[in-house]
Amino acid sequence: MKKHLVIALAALFAGSMAASAQMQVLKDAERAQKSGKAPSEVVNIITPAFSDPETATLAQTYYIPGKAMFGEFDQLFGYKQFNKLPENGDKKMADDLLEGYVYYMKALPLDTVTDAKGKVKTKYSKDIVNTITGHAADYNNAALTYWELKEFANAYRAWDIFLGMYETEPFAKQLEKSAPADTVIGEVYYNQALAAWQADSLANALGSFTKAKAKGYNKKQLYDYAIAVASNLGDQNAVYDWATAGQALYGKEEPSYLGYIINTYLQNKDFDKAFSIVDEAIANDPSNPQYYFVKGVLYDNQDKKAEAKAMFKKSIDLNPEFVQGLTQYGAALCQEAYKLSDEAPTTAAESQAYFDSKIKPLFQEAAQILEKAWNIDNNNTEALRYLDNIYYNLKDEKMQEDVKARQLQ
């Protein structure tokens, strides 16, 4: 019996010593933090406490390294005011803010102390909230630092913290009087979306674009980029929604929105609805060449070549400099010529006469149209592709060589 008692006492003593050792770790880490040691050294000292059951659930375990991170940030910020920031100091400051936030947010829900009367009190929460909200603007600056360093995932995180403060407690109430206007918040969400996109985090990018729009940010590129991200995600419903919103604001200057909307109906083989949408757009703005161009594409999808050609012609009648209309009208002339070539007589004499009277004029007109399209847009590779074939059929070696030279530029 005596032996068993000794063993039990030994085990109890060992457990007490282990707990005491972990509490000593906290004291050593706190001493290092208060003496201004580097956060990395503080973390190194306190790391065993993160996994020990006796200390892993204590707010102090995470408050201490968080305090060290914010302390170093404040010191570096002071150096920056006097242009004495060490090399890579801006990045170190940004890193301190991110890591400090993580530690403080682990400490915050654990910070409950129950007194003898059963009343729950907090020890660190007030300082944590004050510190984080006091550095609100610094998180926006940290995001910009990460953006310049092309650390886009961290830029997204920093903006996420910055934006979240104004929407979640216990920070939002404290920041209520100093909260930026919705227009500013909307622009920050837009920038955050770009960071997520650069980091290939498409779902986050689309979410931030949506929040930017909800805050009133409505510049054209918001819709263009959101559609691109939604397309990459394969989210056709989002593509349709963004295109519909973009069409309402910028449809007169950007035909692609209407194209995306109509493409949704084309995928569902709902041609009647697609034509209804474009006809409504034409009725509202009959002088817009882009709408006739889109209607031409619709006809082309139904293999109604004559109708498509007529719409492309209408678009360039309204705007002779409309590159897309010029290109597709030139292409339609070529397609008509190719079809006639398939129907040409077989005898040499008849074939040449047929070519000269029916096919050659189409190629010549197409060449004139497509050259104009290329002169307006020297990156128009489709125009060059057709021109190469046109000059081949016209046996114009000089112009064909010229086209090939342009294709190599």
Oligomeric state: single chain
Q: Give the low-pLDDT segments.
A: 5-18
Backbone shape: elongated
Which class best fits the helix and strand makeup? mainly alpha
> How large is the radius of gyration?
34 Å
Spatially, the strands of the biggest sheet line up as 1-2
How many individual helices? 20
The average pLDDT value, as a whole number, equals 92
One letter per element, helices H and strands E, the order comes to: HHHHEEHHHHHHHHHHHHHHHH
Distance between the termini: 97 Å
Largest sheet: 2 strands, antiparallel
Strand content: under 5%
What is the count of β-strands? 2
List the helices and strands and how they pair.
Blueprint: H1 2-34, H2 39-51, H3 59-81, H4 89-107, E1 113-114, E2 120-121, H5 125-134, H6 136-148, H7 152-165, H8 171-175, H9 182-198, H10 202-214, H11 220-233, H12 236-250, H13 256-267, H14 271-284, H15 289-301, H16 305-318, H17 323-342, H18 348-376, H19 381-393, H20 397-408
Antiparallel strand pairs: 1-2
Helix pairs in contact: 1-2, 1-3, 2-3, 3-4, 4-6, 4-7, 6-7, 7-9, 9-10, 10-11, 11-12, 12-13, 13-14, 14-15, 15-16, 16-17, 17-18, 17-19, 18-19, 19-20
